[in-house]
Amino acid sequence: MLGRTARSASRRTSTALASPASRPRLPQGAAAAAAAACTCKSLQTSARWAEQQHVKQPTRTALPSDHVLHEAFDTPAAAYAAAPSASAPSGLFNQPAFKTPADFPALAHRTTLRAKVLVERLCRPAPAPESLEQAERAFLAMVKNLDRLSDLLCGVIDLAELVRNVHPDPEWVEGANAAYEQLCEYMNELNTHVGLYHGLKTLHAMLPASTPTKSPALFAAYAVATPFLRDFEKSGIHLPPAQRAEFVSLSTSIIQLGRRFLQNASEPDAREPVCLDRSELEAAFGAAMTRRLLGDDVPESQRQVWIDPTSYEGRVLARHHPSASVRRALFVAANAAPASHVETLDELLTARARLARLVGRESWADVALEDKMAQTPEAVRGFLAALERHNRPRAQQDLEILRRAKAAHLAQTGTGGGRGQEDARVIEGWDRDFYTDLASAAASTSPLPDISPFFSVGAVFSGLSRFFTALYGIRFEVEEVREGEVWAPGVRKLRVIDEDEGRIGTIYCDLQAREGKAPGAAHYTVRCSRRVDDDDTEGDFATHGATTALIDGVQVPRSELENLLVVDPVEWKGRSGRHQEPVVVLVCAFGSSASKGAPACLQWHEVETLHHEMGHAIHSMIGRNEYHNVAGTRCATDFVEFPSVLMEHFVASPAVIALTAKHYKTGHALPESVFSSLLSERSRFSALETSSQIMMAALDQEYHAASVANSGFDSTATLADIQKRYHVIPYAEGTAWQTQFGHLFGYGATYYSYLFDRAIAAHVFAYKFSENPLSRERGEELKQGVLRWGGGKDPWEMIGGLVQNDVVAQGGPRAMEEVGKWGIEG
Ligand SMILES: [Zn+2]
Q1: Residue 34 C-alpha to ligand 1 middle, in angstroms?
Q2: Is 613 an annotated catalytic residue?
Q3: For 38-43+54-91+452-636+647-668, CATH number?
Q4: Distance 39 CA to ligand 1 centre (A)
Q5: Contacts 24+ apart (CB under 8 A), 141-145
Q6: pLDDT tens column, 471-527
Q7: Using CB atoms within 10 A as the burial measure, which of 102, 122, 555, 637 is most buried?
Q8: What are the domain boundaries of the chain?
């Protein structure tokens, strides 16, 4: 649990995928932050909140800082970077230890040495507690030191993780990679450190089960310690030697099979090409378009053409060709899989099932869910079943529109009704996109105008600041960056100011796409908040010399172990002690960049993405905690998307958008009619998409259930069965789409999380904010009742309290079912 993977969204598919038992694990924060660095946008096209009630438009009260904010983000990167620097050159993130790429591995080495001193202290023999009070004190001290150890390592690993993903200079990337690998290797050692495990386990066993309910401090300490213990045990640390060896062997197989599975999932070459007659294309698209589609390589005399179903032309034909037989052939070919791909997945799932049995659980889902809100596979099934019941009538309505479109099309082309002809009552997999396009074209009276000029990056950021001021009493101010502080020109720095507590954190924003930068958006935690004034650092050196420490038999000067990462502790009004401030980075890859005379303007989906990621960032800012392991987004991984998805509801509200949307040339507000047309267009057929997502989440559960260990397990038959039960569109014979469902590896029984958080966010928005999304009073309830706790309080209790629902506040299967009944559309 001392390892971590604070991955970016864009990379998550390739890295955050090692099994919980095998990847370097740091305390719970690891996984949580990985989820916070979300794949959200790649997971699904979300259902949008469609109808808005009429709300009173707020008066725009522009603060002077709004103007500065607006200007700073709308200034071209070169001009911004060239602004005179206020102070002397600095290191990356103002860290003196980070001035050159070589500093990275050097710092990782010193950090490892420093960590060894702390590990030695944690394992030092101590007198057994003689009373419950003494045991509680010893437990709190141990948790504090474990959290400090994890903060020490994460401080460097998180920085390295960011730099290796976003730095444009390959030397820096190399330095960051070296540091990352060095520290992950050490963390892997710690994850199986018997001394650390037994120390914590012994104290934990002395305390009664009711201890966490005694005080918020003990609850938070348990929130840190429990995942530590579970993670240790997930690595088989408590097993006898023979079983331990089997554990290691199975874990290795799972990693290898997982890699192969992901490689297969992204391997388009494995799909068989489809042979079509050129005349079929010419009849549908005309000779000129067919020539353009097939390219110059295919001479017109060639009548039989082979189409790769995963190529551009293959996808165009599968979506737009009016003949069902052409679409069917391409659909089946695109979703079929070689037997070897199916075998790899089946072996992976079986290995996971065996590993779960080995550590005493019934299934892999049991292993994956015990530290989530859901806790058990039965509870997830209850949630999905309730959500499916809620969604089915809506999905049927969507389907009915497609059926009508199909009937009209078949009547028009004379291809329906008769024997051997198309059945208008059934929408097959290969019909869905084709008839969705036809029905959408029929429903749209005129194309929507380009609204991006209303959303310059500066307008969106000043709007966000005004919105957070209205809701939480929190605003952004631009802070000048020092030379060397950031990794690319145009990275902006915001200080985050709370009206009561003063400065509470820092957000760096790296928004524009650039060569070599991964696509997608992510929120990186560079540093979590935690209390630091009660760190007993001197105690770490109690058994060492005054000026040296004995590490692995070598005397190391203490000066080498100090000043690793510089933190200036701060005091916040209303909180005891001094703390380290949270620092996060928002990384996006927006397409437009500012030029002379025109700012960078965002497309609507980019505006939504920015709000989503800002939901994570503000969670990190508000969720300041005693322990870094439960700060901000380091909460249960099936809860971490709630604050960010909630932001998508806010930005779909006219009252909130009125704070933001302003045409950069004319200064005009976005017409309400355009905005409502946009929202209704985006919510079209969303229930059908939800149906697909429910099916995928159910499949993910079934693939990680106990039955996988049975000899007759067949993933394709299971797919067909689950699709029949959960989807309104039938399974297509001959397909084995599960081999392309890459998230099965990374999520492994937790794919439901995103739907789950969507349901919670939709209900919270409808219940608390639909009438007035700018209510300061209700914003304060959300801030104090949920966001400020990070992972330091039971999320069921927090959400149940917020929406005044006792069933939810209790948690468990009934609460999961209740959330499913809410639906995800709000
Ligand atoms: Zn997210």
Answers
A1: 10
A2: yes
A3: 1.10.1370.40
A4: 6
A5: 141/536, 142/199, 142/200, 142/203, 142/225, 143/221, 143/224, 143/225, 143/627, 144/221, 144/534, 144/535, 144/627, 145/118, 145/121, 145/536
A6: 999 999 999 898 899 999 889 999 999 999 999 999 999 999 998 888 889 999 999
A7: 637
A8: 9-34+96-263, 38-43+54-91+452-636+647-668
